[in-house]
């Protein structure tokens, strides 16, 4: 049976399991949109294409499934780049469909042409550095191979964005519907088998250690069952657990063995434990990047022995030499090591008093004036304490601000914390949270500052249009806080292009038709948790922060 390429693309999306696609139509992508009309895929009209990419990324991040977005040619496609780059950095499976001008006008100055011909924008070059696979489909005779390559990248061990750009005339061409039947069954690559010798070596290193510690990263959140197996492993052997920022929530942070986050913007509990107590560090799916390593601070890992486990071989020994490096899915590794704990005779270590250790570090921080949050942040502390206590069920925090929640919110077993760690783009939280809510029906929070809010606030209307429950927590200090902090710390308070005027957010929320709460006191904070509908409503919570309040850390930037 002959069908249009546009219909084939829609059927391909359905075959990938796509049920929601975020985007904005234009003339050069309308054939695909017309076939979406009769499909089971829900289309979501965004306010800006960057929002579509962030929504697709948020959807993929919380669900583990393929996120999808669609736009027209030219600016429609180029507006996606930051969101695609974010998904690339976070290794999120995302498929992007863009239109293109018809092939017969390539090189002749066609409207929104981006073929690279005749001096036009070269869209392939634009996307080449932020995609796993990108193809401008100029003909249909190799379409089977293109779709095959795209699908393989999306389900690979290290996935990322795939972009298919299709000229509008090619979308209308007829092809054999059997193309889809020629594609192989899509399934994840086979899991690596861990040799018994490596497990024995790992067990022996743990046996010999007196004070092992675990650093759990994003890999422990990506892998099925890894969180449960990590909890068993830690509890059985009495090994404390710290997380990277991206791995926050790999262990319930209310646990007696939870050290909190390791990283330059954290309280320092984990760093001091690593440097002062540990003799074996077990890195599980955690990269040792700039933030986690305290800008590669000497002594954070040394002189401890190191076991590193990661599913991505490129991460193994990337910035340090490990005593034992194992390529494995984290869930598989932890399940295997748990299974061999008893046969190998691994006895529990003496249970460390992590609460007492944290109190000692806190006292040191007070004595040395290195407490990360002073009194000016009291209201922020109150907000996160109430947020943590308010929900029995799990919630999702999509966080652009990062530093507050990293230190002040203890992620529970059923929570999901989504920090903006990709390319750390302002304007991510609101659209990413909207995309996440399409995939996961939990109370959804977008956390960001007023600078980032103004970059993405129109996407609130996307939530309104599709009745997506969402609570936005916005910190209002009328400045780009990180820039102002650095100009204060390192540039003699020569403040430039960081401060700005804000709109009246109560009136803005009213214009959107959403709820607004302003927090200037503890009483205001209590009122929010008494009145706000976090399950079905759309809320903007505005918390006032002193413009001259700076978290006490230095990123050396």
TrEMBL record:
Residue intervals of the Thiamine pyrophosphate enzyme N-terminal TPP-binding domain: 4-113
PANTHER family: ACETOLACTATE SYNTHASE CATALYTIC SUBUNIT, MITOCHONDRIAL, THIAMINE PYROPHOSPHATE ENZYMES
CDD domains according to UniProt: TPP_enzymes, TPP_PYR_POX_like
Signal peptide from the UniProt entry: none
Family named by the database record: Belongs to the TPP enzyme family.
Protein known as: Thiamine pyrophosphate-binding protein
UniProt KW keywords: Thiamine pyrophosphate
One Pfam family linked to the record: TPP_enzyme_C
Record-annotated Thiamine pyrophosphate enzyme TPP-binding domain positions: 404-542
Residue ranges of domain Thiamine pyrophosphate enzyme central in the record: 199-336
